[in-house]
Write a structure and sequence with these properties.
Length: 109
């Protein structure tokens, strides 16, 4: 149970994040319709800080370090604003980009 990794699944505009424990057990941690996301921003974008600060909770589904591939997603979960930290690969980012409004997406500078 000590080894944890995250798997991101993006299907038909819905982002699912699963946690895999010890390469044996899987548990769904987060689901959202990406069209309903408030904002998605690359970690280098400072313009999103004020909006991201409105989150009531932060869930880190990344590697634990903020790097070049880290994104923040602000979404509603049970009526509360939640900041999700995750690291989509290039293919997933391009798929998400087709579903999210350009005003809500802040790419890497």
């Amino acid at each position: 149970m000590m080894r944890r990794e995250y798997e991101y699944i993006f299907t038909n505009g819905e982002l699912d994040i699963d946690c895999i424990y010890g390469k044996a057990r899987r548990k769904r941690k987060f689901t959202c319709d990406i069209k309903e996301a408030i904002i998605m921003a690359h970690s280098s974008r400072r313009e999103a800080e004020q909006e991201l600060a409105t989150a009531t909770a932060t869930m880190d589904y990344g590697s634990g370090t903020i790097g070049d591939g880290t994104f923040y997603l602000l979404s509603l979960l049970n009526g509360k604003r939640v900041k999700i930290i995750f690291e989509p690969n290039e293919m997933m980012f391009n798929a998400i980009k087709t579903y999210i409004s350009p005003r809500k997406l802040l790419k890497k500078q």
